[in-house]
Amino acid sequence: MSKKGFTLLEVLIVVIIIGILASIALPQYITTIEKSKSGEAVVNVGAIRAALDRYWYQNYDLSTALLPASGDTNLDIGNPNDVTNKLYTYSISGLSGAGAERAYVVDATRTSGGVSYWVKWTQTNNNTGKLTRSANLGGPTS
């Protein structure tokens, strides 16, 4: 009479192999999820950037541009910080004054599990701008 089944050692080896594969896959999965969430930031940073560009072309001065707040219609978009289920917080800084070339920085930041993520558009003059992401989103750090 032959016995059929697995020994305890065989089952233990299979469980260890599954654990190793899971420990390799989980960090990659989390990175992929965060990269997909950064899509929200890219879209909203693009909308803010386009609104700032329109504002500059109308006024040739960005020093008074603000993200819309409580009825303020300074920029012609809604404030992405007012969205209920937003993932990122948005801000603008480095706004150029009257007579200067167009320059500003649009930041989107998020902290999850003690880790910070950011997406940033830096407009340095009328012709040069650059979108960057934090290194943990797969982008350069500058």
Largest sheet: 4 strands, antiparallel
SS strand fraction: 15-25%
Distance between the terminal alpha carbons, to the nearest Å?
Answer: 71 Å
Question: Main sheet: which strands, in order across?
Answer: 1-2-3-4
Q: How would the global form be characterised?
A: elongated
Q: Evaluate the radius of gyration.
A: 24 Å
What structural category arises from helix and sheet content? alpha+beta
Q: What's the domain count?
A: 1
Say how many strands there are.
Answer: 4
Number of H/I helices = 1
- The unreliable regions are none
Calculate the mean pLDDT score and round it: 87
Features:
single chain, 142 residues, alpha+beta
Explain the layout of strands and helices:
Layout lengths: L7 H52 L29 E5 L10 E9 L2 E9 L5 E5 L9
Antiparallel strand pairs: 1-2, 2-3, 3-4
Short structural description:
This protein has 142 residues and is an alpha+beta fold. It has one helix spanning 8-59; strands spanning 89-93, 104-112, 115-123, 129-133.
Explain what this protein looks like in three dimensions:
It is a single chain. This protein is of the alpha+beta class. The protein has one domain. The protein is built from 1 helix and 4 strands. The termini are far apart.
